[in-house]
Design goal:
Pfam families: AMP-binding, AMP-binding_C, PP-binding. It contains 20 helices and 26 strands. The chain is an alpha/beta fold. Among the domains are: 173 residues, ANL, N-terminal domain (Rossmann fold, 3-Layer(aba) Sandwich); 89 residues, GMP Synthetase, Chain A, domain 3, CATH 3.30.300; 98 residues, Non-ribosomal Peptide Synthetase Peptidyl Carrier Protein, Chain A.
Amino acid sequence: MAELQDVVGRSRQTGGGITRPPTRYIRSQGVPEVVRQHAAAFPDALALICDDARLTYGELDAQSDGLATYLLSSGVKKGDVVCLLVPRSLETVVAKLAILKAGAAYLPLDPAYPANHLQYVLEECSPKVVFTTRHHNPDLVAISGSGSRIVDLSTVLQCLGPGDASRFPNVEGKDLAYVMYTSGSTGRPKGVSVPHRGVTRLVLEQNYVDFCPEDVVLNSSTISFDASTLDVWGALLNGATLVIMSKSNYSVTDIRDLITEHRVTSGTLTTGLFNLLADYIHEAMPSLRQIRFGGEVASPPHVKRFIASHPNCVLTNVYGPTEAICVATAFTVPSDFAAAELPIGKPIAHTPVFLLDDNHNVLPPGKSGQIAIGGDGLALGYFNRPDLTAERFISIETSQGTIRCYLTGDLAIVDEDGAFYFRGRSDRQVKINGKRIELEEIEAALRRFPRLAEAVVECRECGGLKQIIAYLRPNDSQDLSNANFVPSVMERLRNSLPAYMIPSHAIVMAEFPLTRAGKIDRASLPLPAVEHAAQDSGYSRTEEVLIRLWRDALGLEVVPADRNFFDLGGTSLQLMRVHAGLELELGKRCEVLALFKHPTVRDMARFLDGREQAPSRAAAVDQRAALQRRTMAQFRRSTP
């Protein structure tokens, strides 16, 4: 913490403004009370920026008061759930605060998620109100859940009357603040119930981060990703300014431009997105003083590269599951870092972390065990799932007494200095592009397809990238050679799972290899066949550049010029890598939107060369339009 404070102290620019003391962490205090204190003390301080829209703390307080009063008048009571089925926006942040003021908990859901996924979550939570936008899918009316009232958020904010804070219930640190859904090993997503103190403990009087009122904090995560908790409330609970990325499909250069335009000082990125910044943004962004990254194993070369370009920016590798409210351990990278591995760090304040053996006994340094997390950042449990809560949230005996902990399933070793080093998983959970994926959930979704006798899903290293592979055993032997079988299975899967959980490859097999005990021998399942590129002298120079960029991003040997990027297993992060490389090759800006309007190598090359194919047949036009619509939907579902 001393090193963090030293670097931050040197890099902080107050611009001659009033220096305010740090906000205290009070365990019993709810989120709204802390924000209201800032609004009362500095009502003209800037709270939110999104494109040309601005809100001061006084305006944020007043608008959220009005919306909270509307919710109470609509029958919302303390402890109820209100769903936010909206994109990242200024209005969304206002709604979050209003829901908490009304004593309810917000349920953040990505509007791009498949209808089946949304239906399951909404039915389980039965929210009193579902906030949407005017562009929401009309089918949401049918899947909103029993008794839910669907409300257009933008419209209601324009028609608000004055708020009546005297009607607001008393909100305490122990009360439910939000429910965030993660992938579930039982085949269904599970909701993590987070209390107010989990949020306040994350960003107030901490030892891994130093938010201050002079900060300008970047918010680029979707509302359904728990990293948004750190940025949104890190800013608002400390009187800082939150800058919201309005684009749903942004590029690395868009992030750089937003940081530069608003002099952003602080932000949280997935490890994959951080690596892209280190790879493609070589010019310094001098306003940055704190960047946190996490979600996957850190890359020392990328860390060193970033430090070299931004010597005054504090870089912190953070670790923590949703059940421990984003962060449990952190490692502040020293400016002279030269090691071959980054630790996930030491426990943050108010957060005891232990390593346990198979019998849940605490292990000494030097031993490998499962990470267990306790303290004020612990979730209340899983929403409406007492069975899962009892399984994963247990009490253990420590030198500090009996402590309630969450069993993470993550393996680690701790050194004599108390730093933790990640060593993998004890189960089949994986993380790709910062997203948590339970392979059992994908298997369960596949097994609901009547044409499949069995399905197995594995995460393997292919072309240097982690990729999900589905192994399919059909009921009908004719499907072994049916070219439409895999596309039909994948299309059904896309209707029930978020895009980031869709396998990159599918292999159809007549039988699965078995162990001597008669179980599926997962280690013997084959990798996808490597195709070898045929010589093709007909590619233009632009097509050759695009094919090379696609191969590097997708980890494929062969990239057909007429195949859709997402059909080849592409994700939003991989598309951002292609886009960044393309801008570097072109030496000029290119909107990332063009890549999914022209989702094949051939189409994109025609666009870049100014020789787009003229529509000659109505059928071709309809087919291309359908392809673009599908690609847009796939991209939105996988956007970070």
